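Regression report. Comparing outputs from two consecutive submissions.

Submission 1:
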Amino acid sequence: MVKNFKKNKRGSVLYKTKDFRSGFVLLFAVTISAIVLAISLGVANIALKEVKFGTNARDANDAFFAADTGIEYALWIDKPIHNEFNTFVPKVTLKVWSGLGSSGQGCAQVIVDKRTSPAATIIISKGYNIGNGDDAPLHDSCNPPLNAVEREIKINY
């Protein structure tokens, strides 16, 4: 450490000047901690986005497979051996199935439209990842909240 003294013309010491290296350790510590903080915030931000992406993918899958289940069930019911939707009478039928998805909270609203003609049928299935929340399957209620993910499948035959 270099010590600098200010001297007058006679050679006596008037005062001691500050060392130019004083406070370097503090500056170095603050800089290193700021760098470590920036890196950790960046990693935390990436991890949070990955968690949100994974959750959104799961919710989208639940909604899509709920809609697919609704379509498949409506097609199965519309077979001539079941004939629940009555092929020869033009009408619109709404069916609701809940308790679907990986957590059992998904639901599907299925509209079967036979108004056009007996040869044409339109089935629209809307699947949601969050339904009424009942654990019992195949209830007749599907009231998804505003933050639910919706997927729709439409078929014509």
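Submission 2:
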Amino acid sequence: MSNFKQSFLAGIFSIFTIGILTLLTYKTNYGIFLLASFGSSMVLLYGYPESPFAQPKNVFFGHLITSVVGLLVLYFIPMPIFITIPVAVGIGVGSMILFNVTHPPAGGNPIIIIIGSVSFDYLLSPVVTGTIIIIVFAIIINRFILKKSYPNWK
């Protein structure tokens, strides 16, 4: 596939996926489905779906682990924000690597969570629900529309 075609399709499918999450968030009463780091997840899911970092296990658990870390640090480490943010990012990144579920965009989740002072409900919506939606879309689009071997089960 040419670089132009790959970049065009990645852009189109990113618009579609983030568009659905945006509609669900702003035009329904179902909750929040957007997480800023999902924007960078699109780069991997549609631009480089063969990457180990783009595989569903990594996407799901990477976002989940770093979000849990962000929440735990936010609520249980009573330190100034200039300390809690780097500590949470470091623990989140280290945890993804330790558990072999690295998804680079998820490294930003603790920053989002601590700056936003979100509640534990944030784990369900947007983290879990939004991540499941982007994974389902990535499987459908990559496998059935682009005819790529995704997920890569190696």
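Expected: both submissions complete independently.
Actual: both completed, but the second showed a warning that disappeared on reload.
Relevant detail on submission 2: The mean pLDDT is 96.
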